[in-house]
């Protein structure tokens, strides 16, 4: 079921040019026209989804579809600013529609109350970009693969308390232009000093450089083989939170089920002081396997009992928590570390 507030088909009008003047001066009229012709699907209307909706509507896309099958609760209402205070029990997408439309009457905003899992493959093909929030790993991988076959841009993200992630798949060949200041050659005169001979940047003159970048799929990003030599070399540059979020994405937990407490800056030891995970996580061992690290955390330790040299303190701790079985006594697992 879809509720729609219809907008007339049009291009950049004088009214729109005046409203979007600031961003047109930032990225140009052609970019704004492409933005104005884009239709976007946004899945999930909690805190992150509401922020994404606001930014897309104010930027001036042609159309935005808000898709969410869940009902408004006091918790979800307090998590975002589009739902009225008297909307408890209503559908979250429908409850967010009116305020979302008021942000920019020039954008066509729709509310879809169906579950995204029930949507057929061709449903996603009507959009130029798809934004997924609060979705399961399997669903995100499925939608990403579908959209890749039609060159549809995909963005995934979620928030767990003070931690979160964002993933983007813009295709195998994403073309864009980058504005760079012009470099002026230095003087070649023999009598000039070293400073005069150095190339200088002219801030008043810029050139547009065409570039192409390739994005990997979400499936590839989540299935890195950390036992390979190539992956081991990048471990030190990989944030510890990546490993914790592997567990959060595999079995989507709430903010109340995931906590990371950090040591104050400058204090001895690793950054992570304690990780606490509660809730019936049935897939901790599956999380470990999906990371293609077939050894248990303790087998990654050296003979001296120290952790594996390729794993940072935070990474080792996050992996250990994702692997440990939940205590049957209190359904809670806590790992604490000391300097």
From TrEMBL:
<dbReference type="InterPro" id="IPR045886">
    <property type="entry name" value="ThiF/MoeB/HesA"/>
</dbReference>
<keyword id="KW-0833">Ubl conjugation pathway</keyword>
<dbReference type="InterPro" id="IPR035985">
    <property type="entry name" value="Ubiquitin-activating_enz"/>
</dbReference>
<protein>
    <recommendedName>
        <fullName>SUMO-activating enzyme subunit 1</fullName>
    </recommendedName>
</protein>
<keyword id="KW-0539">Nucleus</keyword>
<comment type="subunit">
    <text>Heterodimer of SAE1 and UBA2/SAE2. The heterodimer corresponds to the two domains that are encoded on a single polypeptide chain in ubiquitin-activating enzyme E1. Interacts with UBE2I.</text>
</comment>
<dbReference type="GO" id="GO:0005737">
    <property type="term" value="C:cytoplasm"/>
</dbReference>
<comment type="similarity">
    <text>Belongs to the ubiquitin-activating E1 family.</text>
</comment>
<dbReference type="InterPro" id="IPR000594">
    <property type="entry name" value="ThiF_NAD_FAD-bd"/>
</dbReference>
<dbReference type="Pfam" id="PF00899">
    <property type="entry name" value="ThiF"/>
</dbReference>
<dbReference type="GO" id="GO:0031510">
    <property type="term" value="C:SUMO activating enzyme complex"/>
</dbReference>
<dbReference type="GO" id="GO:0019948">
    <property type="term" value="F:SUMO activating enzyme activity"/>
</dbReference>
<comment type="pathway">
    <text>Protein modification; protein sumoylation.</text>
</comment>
<feature type="domain" description="THIF-type NAD/FAD binding fold">
    <location>
        <begin position="20"/>
        <end position="167"/>
    </location>
</feature>
<dbReference type="GO" id="GO:0016925">
    <property type="term" value="P:protein sumoylation"/>
</dbReference>
<dbReference type="InterPro" id="IPR000011">
    <property type="entry name" value="UBQ/SUMO-activ_enz_E1-like"/>
</dbReference>
């Amino acid at each position: 079921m879809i509720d729609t507030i219809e907008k007339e088909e049009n291009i950049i009008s004088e009214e729109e040019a005046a409203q979007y003047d600031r961003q047109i001066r930032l990225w140009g009229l052609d970019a704004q026209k492409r933005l104005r012709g884009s239709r976007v699907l946004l899945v999930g209307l909690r805190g992150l989804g509401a922020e994404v909706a606001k930014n897309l509507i104010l930027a001036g896309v042609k159309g935005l579809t808000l898709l969410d099958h869940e009902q408004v609760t006091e918790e979800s209402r307090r998590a975002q600013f589009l739902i009225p205070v008297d909307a408890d029990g209503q559908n979250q997408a429908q409850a967010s529609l009116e305020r979302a439309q008021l942000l920019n009457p020039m954008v066509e905003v729709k509310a879809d109350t169906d579950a995204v899992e029930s949507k057929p493959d061709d449903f996603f093909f009507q959009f130029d970009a798809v934004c997924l929030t609060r979705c399961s790993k399997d669903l995100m991988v499925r939608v990403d693969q579908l959209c890749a076959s039609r060159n549809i841009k995909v963005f995934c993200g979620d928030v767990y308390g003070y931690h979160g992630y964002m993933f983007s798949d813009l295709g195998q060949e994403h073309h864009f232009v980058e504005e760079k200041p012009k470099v002026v050659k230095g003087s070649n005169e023999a009598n000039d000093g070293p400073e005069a001979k150095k190339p200088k940047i002219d801030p008043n003159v810029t050139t547009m450089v065409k570039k192409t970048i390739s994005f990997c799929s979400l499936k590839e990003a989540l299935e890195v083989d950390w036992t390979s030599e190539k992956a081991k070399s990048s471990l030190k540059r990989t944030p510890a939170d990546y490993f914790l979020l592997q567990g959060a994405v595999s079995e989507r937990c709430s903010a109340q089920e995931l906590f990371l407490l950090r040591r104050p800056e400058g204090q001895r030891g690793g950054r992570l002081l304690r990780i606490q995970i509660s809730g019936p996580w049935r897939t901790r061992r599956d999380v470990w396997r999906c990371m293609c690290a077939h050894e248990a955390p303790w087998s990654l330790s050296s003979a001296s009992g120290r952790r594996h040299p390729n794993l940072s303190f935070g990474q080792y701790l996050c992996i250990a928590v994702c692997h440990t079985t939940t205590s049957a006594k209190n359904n809670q697992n806590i790992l604490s570390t000391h300097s």
